[in-house]
Amino acid sequence: MKLPVADSAALRAHTGMLLRRHRGGLGRVLLLHTLAATAGLAGPWLLGRMVDAVARGTTTSFVDQAVLLLVVAVLTQTVLIRYAQRDAMVLGETVFAELREQFLGTVTRLPLSTVERAGTGDLVARTTNDIDRVQHTIRFGVPRVLVTAATIVLTLAAAIAVSWQVAVALLAGVPLLLVTTRWYLKRAAAGYLRESASYARLNGTITESVEGARTVDALGLGRRRRERVDADLREAFEAESYTLRLRTVLFPGVDVSFVLPVVATVLWGAWLVSTGSATVGAVTTIAVYALQVMHPIGELIYWLDEIQVGATSLARIIGVQAVAPDRVARPENRPADEHVVASAVRYAYREGHDVLHGVDLDLGVGERLAVVGPSGAGKSTLGRMLAGIHPPTGGTVTVGDVPLVDLPLDELRGHVALVTQEHHVFVGTLEQNLRLARPDADDAELRRALAAVDADWVDGLPDGLATEVGSGGLELSPAQAQQVALARLVLLDPHTLVLDEATSLLDPRAARHLERSLSAVLEGRTVVAIAHRLHTAHDADRVAVVDAGRITEIGPHDELVAAGGEYAALWRSWHQE
Ligand code: ADP
To answer: How many structural domains are present in the chain?
Structure first.
């Protein structure tokens, strides 16, 4: 499954919205550039007048005057361009910053199941390659397109005003220009889309290979992974070659069509001068205009090309917004109590492959339930359902009669939370890391939360709560990071906790220490512990045995042992060890 890409209608609507929102800034930039371009037109015009005047015979003071005007025009243009470009850059940065914030907002709200299913490579490519491309287009492209378009239109208008008979020659390059650019633009969008997609795939393959390096090594998949990278590289190479071929047709075509108008103006102008229907000065002016307009036209085409690239990237970026939410919160729903009930819960990671087959579970408030069973039985999946991480594909999980997935995420986490061994320390201060759970917590509350999980090492930190942690700052040990995660839980204060192998990755000494921290957190809450060591099961109020996506046995430890079923067998074999 791939993340969606916005279609051209959505892209147009989004671009239109952006343009409308910034029409004030755009108007200002356009006005300044139009004035600058107008000042730039004075040079060739004065030159033409001088040529005619000299041909007729004139005074040096006329020439002096013309040169003075020329200097004024150039200075005016310089000042105008300075402000115009500054405004254009500010506008580009503003639009880009908005886009980036919006994108980050969308990405952090994406349903976890969608991200997992689509793979992280695509998302990473969109946040890096695509954002870079759009950034280039918005920062430089949009302003330059406005500038060059204004310059081209004004130059043509000026040429026509000087002498329309001569100006006709400027059209000499148009047919070739139209044919090559149209040929190109028709193929470019698909070409660039394929190019970005091939990079995303390459990104994904390499990221997966690196992240799963141990697995690749253990299973001897090295050759297969290399072959996949090679295949992805080949595809990226072909996609890139295709767009390169497109450009090798476009650029020479454009260059030839630039030279044609200059040549045509001089030849056609010479003939007009010989028949007396134009002056040498007019031909000079228009020939210089033809030279002058070359650069903006070239730049405009370059940007039309870049904008295609930018547009395909933008389509991929705003396409992420089209991911349907996996839940719709109904804030008016208020859980009546802290009672968590799962009924007929099914879940399929892939359509048609249920890993849970209708699980019923009624958790007593304050109860401690251990979930045991063979690996791959669906214990973690059940844990994720009970914590509302994924909406079940069938059945419901409710708290106080309200389905978990009907609760806004912020509120949900105040009811049930999942504790796993993945705990991330964010770059920032320790207090920022803790306040993620409750932004309004004061320092005393943060310290109480840390004390509750036995994190006494915090007192020894150079800057206390304000110590920078995470990559680049103080590197926390896995046990410390886990304690920070637990302190966050204390702040969040959910009444029900789902523990999934919360301490299993740590060395036994750290684990014992942490279990003490953990038991402080668990005090007075409903706990579902996915147990990988049976002694935790022994301490629980009830034990649930999960096998092949079903709860096969459930009851207090002693009863299950006495019943002599599956759990009894597990318990016996564990004891013999
Ligand atoms: P347990 O926790 O009991 O080991 P899990 O809940 O992790 O079992 O897995 C149950 C089944 O679901 C397994 O067959 C596993 O391969 C599958 N599964 C788990 N996570 C995913 C996932 N993200 N995508 C697809 N299948 C998954």
So the answer is: 2
